[in-house]
Amino acid sequence: MNRRGDASLAPYLMVAPATVLLLALILAPLALVVATAFTDWHLGGGAAAFVGFDTFVTLLDEPDFRTAVWNTARYVVFVVPATSVAGLVAALLIAECRRGQALYRMLFFLPSVATLAAMSVAWQMLLSPSVGALPQILRLVGLTPGNWLQDPDRALSALGLIGIWSEAGFAMLFFLAGLKTVPAELHEAAALDGVGTLLDRLWHVTLPHLAPITAFVLVFSSIHALRVFDTVAIMTRGGPEKSTLVALYFIYQEAFSLFRTNLAAAATVLFIAAVLLLSLLQLYLTRARGGR
Amino acid sequence: MRRFLLPFILLLTAVASGRAALAVEITVLYPQPYLYQAPIEEIVKAFAEKRPDIQVKLLAPTKAYEETASAVLRGAITGSMPDVAFNGTNLMHLFVDRKLAVALDGFVSKEADWDKQGYVPGMISTGKVNGQLYGLPFALSTPILYMNVDLLRKAGGNPDAPPQTWPELLALAHKITDPAGNTHGAYMLWTTTGNYLWQELLFTHDGEMLSADGKKVGFDTPAGLKTFEILRDLVTEGGMPNLTDDQGTQAFIAGQIGFYLGSSARVNSLMGKVGKRFELRTAPFPSPRPDSKIVSGGGTMMIFAKDPAKQAAAWDFIKFAAGPIGQTIMVRHIGYMPSNQIAIDTPELLGDYYKNNPNMRTAISQLARTRPWLGFPGENSLKAIQVIYDNMEAVVAGKATPEVALQRSATQVQALLPK
């Protein structure tokens, strides 16, 4: 065997393991999900029959699906801006910190590292109307706490706040990195030009510089918010009165408690399309930045 | 040395091959280990003593009935179904519709003295789907009434003559309800999986889930309306708070609820948790007549083995678990209703146990009236159950009248039935 032949084969051999894994673990299952969405197949059922877009028609007719899409949209619109603002504020405060920067960074980032499922159990206890810490504190200061997770008007907001709590640290990390790239000269020049107050400099110097990273944070928090599941599955199971039925929980329920596999597959296809769209947007924003 | 070794090895191989040729291994999957693990392990041990030729291998249990179902259905694709699975009775349709479950009528007809083995016919009928037997009951329950006797007495009720009908119960519940004192007249566990309590309300009023030919919704009747009316009355007259299952149960244990309506499966755990806080007594579920039908369901044992030898071994195992010894072990551990009359009547099995535990007797006093906890047919079976659940929730929350809830349930379920 000659040396040149080896060299031309080597790259393929090197990517082979990754390719095989990608095919077996992601692309092939994805193809199966897409295929299932166009059949009448149910888990454990016999041969599947092709039914075209029938499953999608049933899905779009399903009131629960519409509720899930609507709730997910409300959740994203509530959580994403708040996560970004909270992350930005935390980053700005920490960047100005002279002492204990590392400590604060860790404290704010902790919720993002913790397993959300375990945290959901903890939150459930904290919010429990009779024995929870939060209602008891509220009662101490003379307020009347509600049974938030059992209140159809409040449950989604409660989950949203927990979502913000768990995601803001992540956003903060990106903003901190972004702040490091703001050149000190710009601030000095702005000060010389008479842009005096801290707030003015924030508005005219820091924020414009952070715009690209902000776009990135918005997109990834949207993707994360779309994927909300743990808190719902553990704390509310989509209730009360479907007020916290979100996209992923709907898919989970259809697939694993109602066993309507094809419907779950169709919903998954739409869900992946939505995430893909957001990812493309992210790619576009990154490219646009690079081209500037 | 050598002289000893050779015969020893020969003996070992003989034993090993003999075992392999004789012992049939069957795999068994069950849910809810917090309830079922102890009794099932003891039953397997007792069975092994009687039948050394069958090796029962317990698979890692799943959390809930739905997960066992899901594991069996996945196994159908990968060719790895358990030989026996403990399924929720209302989920049996899933396996029958997909032609995965083995019908048991053939095994029954081969039993020489089936009538004399003590299996209670009403209870065995909970294992039937489309007229054929697919499951033997392991642990069944029926809804019963739990009473806080202290609250009942205060409201002028007589615990020795508990309310038997809904008007009687609601009137007492109304008197018990005292928002200022944080006491509520009644709480029904309407959230229980598979519309269990809704079916109880329907069946006690002689209602049917499906039409006689099984093709149409059958609850679009006065009996069907009654189910939602009682739910509404429980809220408006009986003071039923809108709580989750756990919250309602905690409130009853804390002594804040007069009547608690739910599965008899909770007797053991409630008696333990209530302790001496108040006097807890059980009574039959309220119904228009003392002989009204009542729903019964729980865990049922189904066979999925394909190999005839394994099927036969599986049948012997589930028969044992549903038999006098199996049922005695089950009742002593978790207090569900036994489905075997011999177990109930024999003093050293369960006879004495029931004599000493009057609260446990309520459920078996309803034994003769049972009819199965059903699922809807077809692939949308569980979705139909969810639809009814949603409408019950709307009535309890005061967002729908019983009439609207019934009408919506009927139309939506009809659309989900097989065409």
From TrEMBL, chain A:
Subcellular location(s) of the protein: Cell membrane
Domain of life where this protein originates: Bacteria
GO biological process: transmembrane transport
Coiled coil: none
Ranges annotated as spanning the membrane: 12-38, 75-95, 107-126, 155-177, 210-229, 263-285
Keywords: Cell membrane, Membrane, Sugar transport, Transmembrane, Transmembrane helix, Transport
Gene Ontology terms: cellular component: plasma membrane
InterPro entries: ABC_transporter_permease, MetI-like, MetI-like_sf
Chief subcellular location: membrane
Topology with respect to the bilayer: Multi-pass membrane protein
Start and end residues of each ABC transmembrane type-1 domain: 69-282
PANTHER family attached to this UniProt entry: ABC TRANSPORTER PERMEASE PROTEIN (PTHR30193), DIACETYLCHITOBIOSE UPTAKE SYSTEM PERMEASE PROTEIN NGCF (PTHR30193:SF41)
Family the UniProt entry places it in: Belongs to the binding-protein-dependent transport system permease family.
Name of this chain's protein: Multiple sugar transport system permease protein
Native source organism of the sequence: Enhydrobacter aerosaccus
UniProtKB/TrEMBL annotation, chain B:
A Pfam short name: SBP_bac_8
Residues annotated as signal peptide: 1-23
Assigned protein family: Belongs to the bacterial solute-binding protein 1 family.
Name used for this protein in its record: Multiple sugar transport system substrate-binding protein
Keyword entries, A-Z: Periplasm, Signal, Sugar transport, Transport
Keyword Transport attributed: yes
Organism superkingdom: Bacteria
Gene Ontology CC terms, in alphabetical order: periplasmic space
Intracellular or extracellular location(s): Periplasm
Major site of localization recorded for this protein: periplasm
InterPro entries: Bact_solute-bd_prot1, SBP
